[in-house]
Amino acid sequence: MDSPARRKSTRTRPSKPPLSEGAVVDAGLRVLRREGLDAVTMRKVAAELDTGPASLYVYVAQREELLRLMLDAVIATVPLPALPAPPPGDWRERLAGLITDVVHALNAHPGIGRVSLGSIPTGPAWLDLFDRILGLLLAGGVDRQRAAWGCDLIALHIGAVTYEVAVAQPAHGDGLGALQGALESRHAQASIEDRLAALDPDRHPHLAASTAELAAGPAAARLALGIEVLISGLAPS
C-alpha cells in the first residue's frame, strides 16, 4: 500500500515581516513617494503592509501622528554637524548648506514638508536639527533671543519652500497619472507667464518691466537667495 500523500501547505507566499513603528513609517513613505501626501491614509498604509488598519494603531495612534513620524524619519537622513558647537569662521556657509540639505531631503518626499506648517514639530530628528541650527547661529555671534526666533523663521521658510515645490510638481505614480500631472503643472506655469505678459504697464509699471526676471532662474538659485537673505538678516551687524 502506498503511503498517504503528504499534505501540502496552503501558504502561497512567505511570512510577513513583523509590524513595528518603523515598518509603518517606511510603508507610509512608500505610499507618499508613489501617490502623494493626501494618499497617505491608515487604510492605504495597512494595505501596503498587507494587513488591516486596526493592526497599525498598536504602533501609531492616528494619521496625524504617522505624518509627524514620517517627517522626522526624512529629517533623520540629513547629516548634522558634530557637537560641540562649530568654530565661528564658517558658520554662514555651514548653515546655508544644512538648510539646503534639509530642503532637498524633503523635496525627495513631495508634500511631507507641509506637515511642519501649522504646528511645531518635536520629533527627535527635528530637535537635533534645530539644536545644530541654533548652535550655528550662536557661533556666528547672533544674540540668543534673535537666534531662537531665527530658528522659527528658518523652519517656516523650509516648510513654505518644500510645500511650493510639492504644489508645482503634482505628478505621482506612473503612466497616464504622471503625464496628466506634468501637463497640469506646465499649463499652470504657462498661465502665469501669460498673465505677466499681459500686464498693463500703466497700472503695474514695475511688474511689467520685470516679467523676464520674475520668470527667470533655476530653483536652486532661488533657494540660495532665500537662504542668503535669511542668514544675512539674522547676522549681527
SSE inventory with pairings:
Blueprint: H1 21-35, H2 42-48, H3 63-75, H4 91-107, H5 124-139, H6 144-168, H7 175-197, H8 205-208, H9 211-215, H10 219-234
Polypeptide structure, described:
- The structure is a single chain.
- The chain is mostly helical and 237 residues long.
- It is 59% helix and 0% strand.
- The protein is built from 10 helices and no strands.
- It has helices spanning 21-35, 42-48, 63-75, 91-107, 124-139, 144-168, 175-197, 205-208, 211-215, 219-234.
- Helix 1 (21-35) crosses helix 3 (63-75) and helix 4 (91-107) crosses helix 10 (219-234).
- It is flat.
- The termini are far apart.
Helix content: 55-70%
Chain-averaged pLDDT: 86
Q: Tell me, what's the shape?
A: flat
Give the N-to-C terminal Cα separation. 98 Å
Spans where pLDDT lies below 50 across 5 or more residues: 175-183
The topology string of helices and strands comes to HHHHHHHHHH
Whole-number radius of gyration?
24 Å
Q: What percentage of amino acids are in beta strands?
A: under 5%
